[in-house]
Amino acid sequence: MTEKTNWKVGELAKQTGLSVRTLHYYDQIGLLVPSRNKGNGHRLYTGTDIVRLQQIVALKHLGFSLDEIKEFLQSSVYSPGSVINLHIGQLREHIKSQQNLCRQLEIIAESLLSQKEVTAEQFIEITEAIKSSEKYPLSRELDDGDKHSGELPVKKKSRQTNQAWDEQQIYVMK
Description:
- With 174 residues, the protein is mainly alpha-helical.
- The chain is built from seven helices and three strands.
- Strand 2 (35-36) and strand 3 (43-45) form a beta hairpin.
- Helix 5 runs antiparallel to helix 7 (159-173).
- The model is unreliable at 137-150 and 154-174 (pLDDT under 50).
């Protein structure tokens, strides 16, 4: 059995969960321009296009605009590994945040079951943890200097996120 090398727009949409309209729009704005079938002019996506599409979806999931994604994917500093590493770092941060929230909720649940006093501060901590977990991965605040030299913008959200990105940049550059 040979590996598939070309996908029609409908096939790709069905396999990725994206709409045909989205793929057409990405083509229209020059973000993901597929090859064309010489016989009938239909869009044909190659393996290279699939890699680019994954990168677009990952960056969009992390909160980047289509313009930012296009600019970054066209820059000389772009590499698929850097996007994957950033996504991994953000997912790990999100998991850590969710685990912390779960621990806090378990403590309060246990206190409530044993009829121990639960303080207002504990409920404030939980509220804060819930609100901060809502921010991932759809919101992102840019540093003022992020729009230079094609570098991938990084969240201001936490020092850990910025440190993780710096470490990933070093890892990708090696």
